[in-house]
Design brief:
alpha+beta; Phage tail protein beta-alpha-beta fold; 3-stranded mixed β-sheet; 3-stranded antiparallel β-sheet; 22 strands; extended
């Protein structure tokens, strides 16, 4: 059984809620700039092109942006970065191409054709260090850096072991002494205590008893001791640690040393062979034998060099040491003497052991055509300022009566004077002498034009104040006297001229005698 129940009730409609108010919408805020407030978009495009490896397009946009605002630091930074990246990319692309080409030509990637044509004796290419060494050798100049330069180096004149000791340096000190009427011994003791010089003297020397008055203000000690030595016949011998005072009249008590001086320039000796004829004569008088040798040398060059070098002559005249000798083969001078005497020797060697001044002369013997010679005569000198032309009568036959008169104004005034109407002639003179470059250019230009020809251009190096000769030509001999010589035969007689006497020498050509003199 089915039960159906139906219930009914009254229903009221629910009140409708008011529609919600629409929400207020605001525009989205733009994102903050990443790089620049002005050019953020352009920079983003440039960086995106760089990420895509499109460097050329990125560089083009960067250049355009840099032209727009070159003073912007952000734009300047990205422009410099792009320039650097562009250079690196181009260099990388070039290296890739070079390596690709080298790989194809390498011995480690042979082809069938290269294997067939390969030479069995062909080795591997050299290593990189070998190639770099060869490149450095090829890049070095053939002419050294010191070519054409004068390098002056001053070395020690004597042996290095003979350098000055401690006492010699102490003598260079300045001293101040004010003493009246005191003996020399007291003065030396005072100097030894004040300046620290170790002085050893013999009290028996008469010079130490001499009474002196000394007033010195900042005078070198060595100069004062030299004054005492010259005037009181004593000598101050300087050692490494001591200064001895000895009698200068006794040569056995002098302290001498031997020094070796090696010359830098050496000696100039005459060019002569050894002696071929030696005449020796011995003369004995009063138990004294005198040997005289006469030697004849044969010169093969007339160099006009003195038989006795200047340094040797100066040593003989000015050096007062006990002994000295010269070795020409080794350019060596050995001298023995005191410190003061060896100082003179050092000064002589320093002044005489110098290069002799020389002059290189080049003479040109040329032939010129007559027009070129006249033109060259005008070109020799140029540039003298113009002078006031003067009237000239070259003939000497013109006077005021037999020649027409002309009226001219007196220079520098308003008056006029009458004089014969003669010409002024050629009044131009020139003073600017050609230099070496201008002369060479002028002669070369004439040779190229066919107006001149250089016969010879000899060069000669002459010494200072020594004559020299440059000649170009031939030396010929001829006879001025002849005799008639007859030859009589059975059927005929013949006569001929035969030269007699001494032939005469004649030189055909040009000759230039010069003597260079250099001051200083």
């Amino acid at each position: 059984m089915t039960l159906l129940v139906v219930l009914s009730a009254c229903q009221q409609p629910k009140p409708t809620a008011p529609p919600p108010h629409p929400a207020q919408t605001h525009p989205p805020e733009p994102p903050p700039p990443k790089f620049s407030q002005t050019y953020d978009k352009e920079i983003e495009e440039i960086l995106q092109l760089a990420k895509e490896n499109r460097w050329e397009d990125a560089k083009a946009k960067t250049d355009a942006l840099y032209l727009k605002d070159p003073k912007n630091p952000i734009v300047e930074r990205i422009h410099s970065w792009m320039e650097q990246q562009a250079k690196q990319r181009r260099a990388q692309a070039l290296e890739d191409q070079i390596r690709s080409i080298d790989a194809k030509n390498s011995a480690f990637n042979p082809t069938l054709q290269s294997l067939a044509k390969e030479q069995k004796d062909h080795g591997l290419p050299p290593r990189k260090d070998v190639r770099d060494a060869v490149e450095r050798i090829e890049s070095q100049p053939y002419i050294p850096e010191t070519y054409g330069k004068t390098i002056r180096e001053k070395g020690p004149l004597f042996d290095l072991e003979s350098t000055k000791g401690h006492m010699a340096r102490v003598l260079e000190k300045e001293i101040t002494i004010h003493l009246d009427n005191v003996p020399l011994e007291t003065i030396l003791v005072n100097i030894s205590q004040s300046s620290g010089v170790n002085i050893v003297a013999d009290k028996s020397l008469a010079a130490l008893k001499q009474v002196l008055s000394v007033n010195l203000e900042k005078v070198q000690l060595g100069e004062f001791l030299r004054y005492i030595g010259r005037n009181y016949e004593v000598q101050f011998q300087v050692g490494n640690e001591l200064v001895w005072v000895v009698d200068a009249k006794d040569p056995k008590k002098l302290m001498e040393e031997t020094r070796f001086y090696r010359l830098r320039k050496g000696f100039i000796l005459p060019a002569a062979f050894g002696s071929e004829d030696v005449n020796r004569s011995v003369v004995t008088a009063n138990n004294v034998s005198t040997t005289t040798e006469t030697t004849k040398f044969r010169k093969f060059v007339n160099d006009d060099a003195p038989n006795l070098p200047s340094l040797e002559r100066a040593i003989k005249e000015l050096f007062s040491g006990s002994k000295w000798m010269i070795d020409y083969e080794r350019n060596l001078v050995v001298a023995r003497g005191t410190e003061e005497q060896l100082t003179v020797m050092e000064k002589l060697i320093e002044e005489f052991d110098r290069p002799i001044q020389q002059v290189l002369i080049e003479a040109r013997f040329v032939t010129l055509s007559k027009p070129a010679f006249l033109q060259l005569g005008v070109l020799w000198e140029t540039g003298r300022p113009a002078q006031t032309p003067q009237l000239q009568d070259i003939t000497g036959l013109i006077n005021n009566e037999n020649f027409p008169q002309s009226t001219i104004q007196v220079p520098g005034s308003s008056t006029f004077s009458s004089a014969p109407a003669v010409g002024i002639g050629i009044q131009n003179t020139f003073t600017k002498v050609f230099g070496a470059d201008q002369l060479s250019a002028t002669i070369s230009a004439m040779e190229q034009s066919g107006e001149s020809q250089t016969l010879s251009a000899p060069r000669l190096t002459v010494l200072n104040n020594r004559p020299a000769t440059i000649s170009d030509g031939k030396v010929q001999y001829f006879y001025e006297e002849y005799q008639v010589k007859s030859t009589v035969q059975q059927y005929y007689t013949a006569s001929s001229f035969v030269p007699s006497g001494k032939p005469t020498k004649i030189t055909a050509g040009a000759e230039l005698n010069v003597m260079a003199s250099i001051s200083g």
